Amino acid sequence: MASSGTIAAISTALGHSGIAVVRISGPDAVFVAKRLLVRKEFPEAGRMYLTSLLDADGKMIDRVLAVRFAAPKSYTGEDVVEVHTHGGSLIARTCLELAVKNGARLAQPGEFTLRAFLNGRIDLAQAEGVLGVIQAKSSEALHAAARTLSGELSRKVQKIHDEILRLQGNLEIQLDFPEGEAFVGDLAEELQSVRHELTELESRCRAGMLLNEGVRAVIAGRPNAGKSSLMNALLGRNRAIVTEIPGTTRDIIEEGIIIGGVPVKLMDTAGLREADDVIEAEGVRLARQAVSEGDVCLYVIDASCGLSDEDEEYLAGLAGKKVIVVLNKSDLPCKVNNNNIPFPKIHVSAKNHTGLDDLRNMLYGICCDDSALSEGLNVSVSQLEEIHSAREAVSDALVSVSEDITAGLLGSARMCLLRVLGVDAGDELLDSMFSRFCVGK
Ligand SMILES: Nc1nc2c(ncn2[C@@H]2O[C@H](COP(=O)(O)OP(=O)(O)OP(=O)(O)O)[C@@H](O)[C@H]2O)c(=O)[nH]1
Ligand SMILES: [Mg+2]
User: Where are the domains of the chain?
Assistant: First the structure.
C-alpha cells in the first residue's frame, strides 16, 4: 500500500455544523495551502491563524482558521496544514476541491493514519486504537481503545517480545557453545511466567473485542409467545409490530442495546412452526439460521399456555448453545412445569415490563461477564490471533523435547508479537487494516 505525494481530505463529518476541517498532508502541504489562503506565511508551527479562504477567482468565500504542523511533529509525521472552515458541506468541499486543483490529491480511507504508521509515529496496535476510539459504542469500549491508542498494548507486547528474545538468545548461545556456561536461571520457570503474561494479555484483548463486537442475542420461539413484545420492552420503544395474530413477524428485525458497556444486537424473528405460507416459511428458515449463528438465544415461551411438544423438541435441538428460556406473560397464571427445561429460565411480562432487569443481568452473566472487561484492550481480529498463536508457541516450547525446537518456537512467538506491532507488515495486511478507516482519518 504505497502512499506518496500530498493528500487532502475533509476530516470532519459532512453536513451543517459549527466548523469543518480540511486536512492537507505531504511535502507540498504548505505550498498548496498558501494558494488557497490570503495568509501566505505560517511563521509559527502549531499556532492558529485567522485568514480567508479564496475561490479559484481569488474571491473570499469564508473566514477560516489555519494551522501548520511541521514534519516530523504532526499526526502523519509530514508537513500538515489544517484549514478550519465554517461547517456546511459546500464550503469544506470547495476548500478540498481548491486543494486538489493546487496540487494535492484526494486521500484514500485511512491514508493519514497509514502515513503516521509508515513514518513511525504510531505502530499498528496504536492504529487499531485510533479506529477503536472512533468506533466505540460505549464508554467502556472507548477506554479500551484509548488504552491501546496510548501505547499500553504496544508496550506490553514489546516487553513480552524482549523477554522471549533474551531467553531465545541464551538458548542459542548454549546450542552454539555447548561447552560454555549453562543457561542462567530456570528456563521452564521463565517460560511459564511469559506464558502467564501472554494469557493475561490475550484475555484483556478478548475483553476489548467483546466491547467492540458485542454479542448477537436472537429472540426465538413459537408464534404469539411474545417475542416482538419482548424486543420492544427491552428497547423501550415499539419497534416491531405486535398483534394477537400468530405469524405476525416475518423478516428479522435487528436493534442494538448496550448492557454493561457491551453492545448487544437483539434480533426478533418469525415464530417457529410449519408454515404453509411461502413468506412465513422463509421467515422461519431465517429464524432458525439466526439462532444457529447467534451467540445466545432468548427462547420465549407463552407461560400462560404451558410448554408445547414443539417447544420441548426445539429446546432439545439447542443443546450446547447459550440459551435463556424466557417464560413470558407472567402477568397471567403460569402453566409451565419448570423442571422440564434444561436451560436457565426467567419469568417476565413483556406487557407489564416486569423481570426485564433480571433478564438483562442474566444475559450479561451468560455472554458478557468477563473480569478483564474493565482492563480491556482494543485489537483487531488478526492481532488477537497473533497474540493467541504467540501464547500457543510458548506453551509448546514448555513441553518441547529439544533445545533447538524450543528456540525455534520462541522465534515464532516473537514473530507473532512483531506482527501485532506491524513490524515488516506487508501490503496485504496494511490494505486490510487501513481500508476500515474513514476518509480523512
Ligand atoms: N398478557 C400478556 N400478553 C402478552 C405479553 N406479551 C405479549 N403479549 C401478547 O401476545 C400477543 C403476541 O405478541 P407478539 O409480541 O406479537 O408475539 P410474537 O411472539 O412476536 O408473535 P409472532 O411474531 O407471530 O411470532 C399479543 O397480543 C401481545 O399483546 C405479556 O407479557 N402478557
Ligand atoms: Mg413477532
Answer: 7-122, 129-210+380-422, 215-368
